[in-house]
Write a structure and sequence with these properties.
InterPro entries: DUF2267 (IPR018727), DUF2267_sf (IPR038282). The chain is an all-alpha fold. The protein has a single domain, classed as Uncharacterized conserved protein DUF2267 (Globin-like, Orthogonal Bundle), CATH 1.10.490. Helices cover 69% and strands 0% of the residues. α1 crosses α5 and α5 packs across α7.
Length: 128
């Protein structure tokens, strides 16, 4: 899947314009990469469109420990959107990511997220 197709899916699923979807995608992937281990981020990076790969590359192995609320705050701030739009966007990005990287890689990576992501991840998986 090319970057444009990925962004289109995010835009459609989050109900936002393409440019907002692009910012939500970049913000979500950057924040996700910070929150999970370098190994998991690398595994995801190998399976996404080339243009999205740099957002999942992190210089250190350890994951940063921060909450669901902090995750959403970072994405909202990066994309310049409100919290509900950030949550829809993160769900849309996770849904497109699940579709792109496959179930095993997706569940391996999202297992490292705070438990509050459970419902969002389940919603993202169901949207596919």
């Amino acid at each position: 899947m090319a970057e444009l197709a990925f962004i289109d899916k995010v835009a459609e699923r989050a109900g936002v314009p393409d440019e907002t979807a692009r910012l939500l995608t970049k913000g979500t992937l950057l924040t996700l990469a910070a929150r999970i281990s370098g190994g998991e981020a690398h595994d995801l990076a190998e399976r996404v469109p080339d243009e999205l790969r740099p957002y999942l590359i992190k210089p250190t192995e350890p994951a940063e420990s921060f909450s669901y609320d902090e995750f959403m705050r970072r994405v909202a701030e990066y994309a310049g959107v409100d919290r509900p739009t950030a949550e829809r966007g993160v769900a849309a990005v996770l849904s497109a990511l699940h579709e792109t990287v496959g179930h095993k890689e997706f569940t391996d990576a999202t297992a490292q997220l705070p438990r509050e992501f459970g419902e969002l991840v389940a919603t993202a998986s169901a949207v596919r």
